[in-house]
Write a structure and sequence with these properties.
Length: about 190
Amino acid sequence: MTRWQDERSADDSHAYVRRFAELDASGADTHGEARMVDVLLERGSTVLDAGCGTGRVGAELARRGHTVTAVDLDPVLLDAARATGVLTVVRADLAELDLPGQRFDAVVVAGNVMIFLAPGTEAAVCRRLADHLAPGGVLVAGFATDYRYSVDDFDADLAAAGLVREHRFATWDLRPWRPDAGWAVTVARKPVE
């Protein structure tokens, strides 16, 4: 069971959906993650939105011309992702993700996905995500730094999965990384074979 499943109820998931709907309705900028990822991609790239939640990031990437497959376990959040009408939506555990024959130009792991995984599965998730990246593809992940899973742990798991870290920022708007940052946004790439 993931930490999200263990710590959140269906009511919590509905509240999460409402929260982002209210932010969008208020005019708040909810697309910083998608803007950053979009800059890294060629037009018409394929993207795996891993731990997609409501599909907010993936839907914005789709609106920007990319083909996005969104994956999550939470049925409430998956319903919201489907409702965007622009995503291919799959229910799956990221630690066991297997989309036969599918390789993506990018994998996006936004919104604290890495710290809501089942404890001890982080390395397996990194391997599964790396396996779904095309050679030269990029993985972009962001999560809070005040949890048990650290950026050092993440770097080790990325390296073990065959990915090379290229950049780390303190925010999705590319503020410089510093060790005391409350957030880490990491860009890693799968080497071209």
